[in-house]
Amino acid sequence: MDQIQHPEPPEKGVSTTVPAPLRAIQERVYACIQCGTCTGSCPNAFAMDYTPRAMWRLVLMGEKETLFNSRTFLLCSACYYCTLRCPRGLPLTETMEELKQIAARENHPVHKKSVLFYRNFLESVRRHGRVREMEFMTLYFLSLKNPFTPLQFTPLGLRLMGKGKVGIQVPSKGQRRLEALFRKAEELEEQE
Amino acid sequence: MKNIYEYYAKWIREGKLKVNSDWNKDLKIKFTAQDPCQIVRKSFGDPIAEDLRFVVKSVVGEENFVDMEPNRSNNYCCGGGGGFLQSGFKDARLEYGRLKDRQIKETGATYCVAACHNCHAQIHELSEHYGGGYHVVHLWTLICLSLGILGPNEREYLGDDLKEVLVFHPESEH
Amino acid sequence: MNRKNGKALVVGAGISGIRAALDLAEFGYGVTLIDRASHAGGLLSQLDYQFPNNHCGMCKMLPLIERDTASQYCLRKGFFHENIQMLLSTELLSVDGEPGHFQVSLKQKQNWVDPDLCMGCGLCTEVCPVEVPDAFNAGLSKRKAIYLPIPHAIPNPYVIDFAACTLCGECEKVCPTHAIRLSEQERKKFRILVVDDELVVRDSLKELLEEEGFFVNMAESGTQALEILSGSETPYHLMLADIKMPGMDGVELLQKTKERFQDTTVIMMTAYATVETAVEAMKIGALDYLIKPFEPDTLIPMILRVYEDFETAGALQAEFGAIVLTGGTAYYDPGTGKNTLGYGVYPNVMTSIEFERLFSGSGPSQGRLIRFDGKPIRKVAWLQCIGSRDIQLEADFCSNICCMYAVKEALIAKEKAADDLEASILYMDMRTFGKSFQRYRDEAEQVHGVRFIRGRAHSITQDRSSGDLLIRYGDSGGKIHEMVQDAVILSVGQRPAAGSRVLADMLNLPLNPWGFFESLPFSPTRTVRDGVFIGGSFSGLKDISESVIHASAAALSASRIIHASGGGLAIQAPPDSETLDVSREAPRLLLALCTCDGAIFDESGKRALRAHFESDPAVDRVEFLEQVCTAQGWSAFSERVKKHRPNRVLIGACLPYVYNAKLNALSREIGLSRALMDVADIRSPLFCAADASREEVDAAVKRALGMGIAKLKETDPTPLPSTPVRQRALVVGGGIAGMTAALAVADHGYPVDLVEQEAALGGNLHWIRKTIEGNETQSLLEETVARVEKHPNIQVYAGHHVAGAWGEVGQFFTSIEAGDGAVTTIEHGVTILATGGIEAKTKSYGHGTSEAVVTQKELEEKLTEGRIEPAALQSVVMIQCVDSREEPRNYCSRVCCASALKHALFLKEKNPSIKITILYRDLMAYGFLESYYTRARAADILFVQYDVKNKPSVVQEEGGLLVKVHEPILDAPVEIEADLVVLATGIVPTLPEPLAEAFGAHLDPDGFFREAESKWRPVDALKEGVFACGIAHSPRSITESIATAEAAAQRSLRILNQQALPASKVTAVVRHSLCILCERCIDACPYGARDFDLDHTQIRVNPLMCQGCGSCVTACLNGASVLEGFEKQQMLDVIDAALL
């Protein structure tokens, strides 16, 4: 794979005001001594625009803009290597997860596709108690508002259909059963 | 919170799950096992990796289990976790899995036990993509096989060597 | 011989314990030095090479004056001092009483090998069938169950590893001196009662325990057990009781047993389900518990522990004035926990200690760098901070020494492999904070090509077929690198010494959060319990130099307590007889031969020997004696000596070192010079060649004795003159170090002159408010100044400076000049230089051109005076290593990183919204300072690392400063607006070279005091009687300065203590008639004992500084340099006798 180009480095190193959600993230990684164990460990660092260590650096420097324009945290596959090996015992994998959530909540355009993917995935789960691949795909493609996207997935779709992995399904017993759970989760999130 | 591996191991130790590995005594089919990140590193650590090995060894035979290097908590991620499998970065994901593929190939095993659905899917794809030719198998599949209750329909994705072993035909019982 | 009535206990016989014990012993106290190991020397007995010269050099710690009171050979092998009683395999049981009068009980473990009888012949190991990993070689090789704990010790009796021994009895059969008492009868005396309702359990236990040689009885119920216990005349030592039994259960049985038979130890046996009950049982007196079903491997060691205690019954009681704890540290075991580095899994991953053993000549491969599979090691990587700086492992500390030992090991590895070796060190911060460390590191990199890689390897993988190791790491910029290595060395960090917690509880001493012993503020050695002191690495790992300093400081503190409680009074010994002048007499030698109960000579042998030696006219008499090593044998011997009045005495016996102290005492008693007495080893020849014939053995004995006689015959008995001592000290410099040293000496009753050039005492303490730990420095200053000024033994010369000095140890004359020109001359026996240092001035980064660019000191002053208001600051940038750690000032000043952390934390506390950025090269938060580094990060202080080749810049702009720096992780330039820039410029010494030279001391390239030996004599000048402490020695914190001051005082006391310093028997002299003044000997002398006497135009030897090494003799071209006791004719005669 080609090495991904570095985006422009930040102009000013230290911003004086740090927004609240990022502040919480900073607090989780404050003890970082930038040893780079996370970067060395990360099986996916090669695909990231900023290595994990550089990303934590951005977090500590309060570089929100650059941070959320990066796709580093999205590429975290939650393998927990960095958490296992971090000499400072930092909850790095969980913090990556939180960055994903912040990005989703704040609707960063860079992450639109991923956010829509997750959102539609969960919408399908919410409706049926499990994911309905066909419905999920439909919702996802519709929300992308790009008529060409589905075409990219046609070969995969055909293969999956061949194996019986996707198909038209009749309503199941799980219909709307998870609704209460989702509502409760929403309530909790709002309270935060 | 408990994980199913712990129960499998417990039941086997208590004799409730009467698995045995005699079926593989002569076949000598080699198995290796993936340590899923979420279950081993993230949640339960080395003790569960030991349970997993105990279960696998109980069903395929001690001598037919080949561990990956490194293993347990230090094993590598398959590359499919954290939503990666679904997120669309396929090239990155397969590149990421190169290490896992190499590890499995080095064991020389015909089957990789992947007791995590994510790992299962990813390793399956790795085998195809890098031409490893090894198969991926769920832990429960093997347990059922060794108990003699694995039906032919569940063997679709297994290799030919396991197609005919201890096949369970519910219809023939009646 | 100087001996006071005070006594001290030193716990732990590692390097610090030895130093503290020697310090106290040299001052005249009686010292008991104990160690729970069966050998002295601690970790250093395993390490062959030391930074910075890759030699050992431990012998330089041996007493320099009154040398004859102690052994004078390799200190790593062991040592003897007349005032030191060494008790090995001994633990401290309890301490009661008050400082000055502690009642102490000690427990000495008995071994089955009698150390007095064991000759070290080694026949036992040949027959021992058991093999276990050898701890001395860090497990890299195997040893037998009967073994030598360290191969080079003197004396070196074999010991038996109880846990491994199978009691087969083979060794006992072959032991020629019957030193091994293995007989199972001993174990039979240990009575065990097994109580269980299940017959199977009872039977199997009985079988197992009887196999181990114990006496075993059984009971099937609690009631029956109690009957047996009360019915038995001899008590049961151990009861194994099942918890769940019908009728009386195990807990009830335990209670009843403990009520009536307190001495019976009880171990509970429990099923998994009742473990909690077993734990409860331990609270009411059970020793431990076993979970059924148990393996013999769990059971037997537990039983053996109880048995050992039984064997050891009977503690030693003694009174001591003070106690010094020098228990050392343990090391992190990387095989525990997550073990991402595969230690114990991959054979070529080793700890740094294992690697030290690997390249040691006495190691598993005789010092060759080869792996287990025989492959030569040609690529090695060191991984730093293994078990250190790791919060995940609850190790939020730096272990201080690993950076330097890694560099040292890398250099030795390169040397061993004749440079055909690639050495890489992967580090986070290279903490070269000690004296001369930075240059050593730079040289390793630039001259020797050691690769320093800033990176942390996360895991190691092994190539299945080759066994080579693969390391992946990310560099600063995030690029991933892979390297294949033959071996990977884990630089393991410190852990508290085993048993620290138990000892701390017993002594009521606090431990720090990581389990290390804690000292009081501003004292490295004092604890909350007066009279109990900690030295060396017990309070956290230290390198040798710091350990030695801290040990001496602890000795000083102990000495002070002992002195205050009357321990300074000399013991009334019978007055020494005047030394007889026998120089004009012909030799009349008494040859006393030990027959060792007939083991050495038979009657015909005796006759033959007598005839042989009596034919020598120098031999007056030949006497055969029984067991000279026993008290009886010795008194028989001394009676003969007193009766026949010989002028030479030679004893033929075994283990010559046993007789050193006894001969010294005899010499004093009868007035015959100790130089005219010696011991020849005539017993070793008997064992060295097992298959030798009687004739060969007799010949060997004859040779040994002949050599001894030849040497004594030619010895010049003229006693050397002693040097008078002016028992008064001069301390130059009145900062905290100088004041501390002055007080320490004065408290021992010797007058001190304290010279300070400023009008007020206190030095740098005037501008420091608080330490990073939050301790108030002003109260320290006030208290210390008050004590100094009030002290009757201290004369303060404030506003004076030293104008000139001359003289030597014992007699210095120093003239000091007041501001008005008035000159006073002081006579003193020792000199302590405590001239301190100041913060370096700088012009870098615009200092001096802007009010907003200040140094760390200026920041502290301005904060104190209120000229900088934290509330008014928005952004502060601190720049570390300004003009430091690069030529010409290529050293770390050690305190600046702590200052920066302290000030940053202070500013943040006062104004949490200040943005603080610290630009650093390697953050030197060594030791427990690391936790403040963590704290600073928690306080949102940003740390940016910079490279010395790409330094930051400060631009003055309208409205503030702009600091530009390259951020290595983002690999991008960063600009920081700042309204204050703080520079850490480091410390420069203020010890003028002429002042140092006046006293005969020298300076290092940076203007600090040059030590005689950086590791072993860290506060001494090469010239005896001159010491340095505080910043004059090297940059250091207040507490560390105090440690050096106390150490310097302790070193002075051993001189001030004497009215006259006697020369030792082996000392070099010059035959002036032969000397051509080439001065080669002056350069050759490693002790600086020789100089050119301009007044008499001749080479002069200072007999106190000469240590009798003989270097000058070999350097001298025409035999003008002579070593007393090793003269040419003497040596030739000895060689002749050896070749007989």
Report on the architecture of this protein.
The complex is a heterotrimer of chains A (192), B (174) and C (1140). Helices cover 55% and strands 0% of the residues of chain A. Chain A is built from ten helices and no strands. Chain B has one domain. The N and C termini of chain B lie far apart (39 Å). In chain B, helix 7 links the parallel strand 2 and strand 3. Chain B has 174 residues and is mostly helical. The relative contact order of chain B is 0.16. The two termini of chain C are 39 Å apart. In chain C, helix 11 runs parallel beside helix 12 and helix 14 crosses helix 26. Chain C has eight domains: 185 residues, FAD/NAD(P)-binding domain; 71 residues, no CATH class; 127 residues, Rossmann fold; 166 residues, FAD/NAD(P)-binding domain (3-Layer(bba) Sandwich), CATH 3.50.50; 125 residues, Rossmann fold (3-Layer(aba) Sandwich); 178 residues, FAD/NAD(P)-binding domain (3-Layer(bba) Sandwich), CATH 3.50.50.60; 150 residues, 3-Layer(bba) Sandwich (FAD/NAD(P)-binding domain), CATH 3.50.50.60; 56 residues, 2-Layer Sandwich (Alpha-Beta Plaits), CATH 3.30.70.20. In chain C, strand 34, helix 21 and strand 35 form a beta-alpha-beta unit. Chain C is 28% helix and 23% strand. Chains in contact: A-B, A-C, B-C. Chains A and C meet through helix 2, helix 3 and helix 5 of A and strand 23, helix 24, strand 44 and strand 47 of C.
Architecture blueprint of SSEs:
The complex is a heterotrimer of chains A (192), B (174) and C (1140).
Chain A: H1 20-29, H2 37-41, H3 52-61, H4 64-69, H5 81-85, H6 92-105, H7 112-128, H8 133-144, H9 149-162, H10 179-191
Chain B: H1 4-14, E1 31-33, H2 40-44, H3 46-60, H4 84-87, H5 90-96, H6 98-107, E2 111-113, H7 117-129, E3 135-137, H8 139-147, H9 160-163, H10 170-173
Parallel strand pairs in B: 1-2, 2-3
Chain C: E1 7-11, H1 15-26, E2 30-34, E3 84-87, E4 90-98, E5 101-108, H2 123-127, E6 131-133, E7 142-144, E8 146-147, E9 159-160, H3 170-174, H4 184-188, E10 191-195, H5 199-211, E11 215-219, H6 222-231, E12 238-242, H7 250-260, E13 265-270, H8 275-283, E14 288-291, H9 296-311, E15 316-320, E16 322-325, E17 329-331, E18 349-351, H10 352-358, E19 379-386, H11 402-416, E20 422-427, H12 437-446, E21 451-454, E22 460-462, E23 469-474, E24 480-485, E25 487-492, E26 494-496, H13 500-507, E27 532-534, H14 544-567, E28 589-594, H15 603-614, E29 619-625, H16 631-644, E30 648-653, H17 660-670, E31 677-681, H18 684-688, H19 694-713, E32 723-724, E33 729-732, H20 736-746, E34 752-756, H21 777-790, E35 794-798, E36 800-808, E37 811-818, E38 823-828, E39 830-833, E40 837-839, E41 853-855, H22 856-865, E42 875-879, H23 896-910, E43 915-920, H24 930-938, E44 942-945, E45 953-957, E46 960-967, E47 972-978, E48 980-983, E49 987-989, H25 993-998, E50 1026-1028, H26 1038-1056, E51 1060-1061, E52 1068-1070, H27 1080-1084, E53 1090-1093, ...
Parallel strand pairs in C: 1-2, 1-16, 2-3, 10-11, 10-12, 12-13, 13-14, 16-27, 18-25, 19-20, 19-25, 20-21, 28-29, 28-30, 30-31, 33-34, 33-39, 34-35, 39-50, 41-48, 42-43, 42-48, 43-44
Antiparallel strand pairs in C: 4-5, 5-15, 6-7, 8-9, 17-26, 22-23, 23-24, 32-51, 36-37, 37-38, 40-49, 45-46, 46-47, 52-55, 53-54
Helix pairs in contact in C: 1-14, 6-7, 11-12, 14-26, 19-29, 20-21, 20-26, 23-24
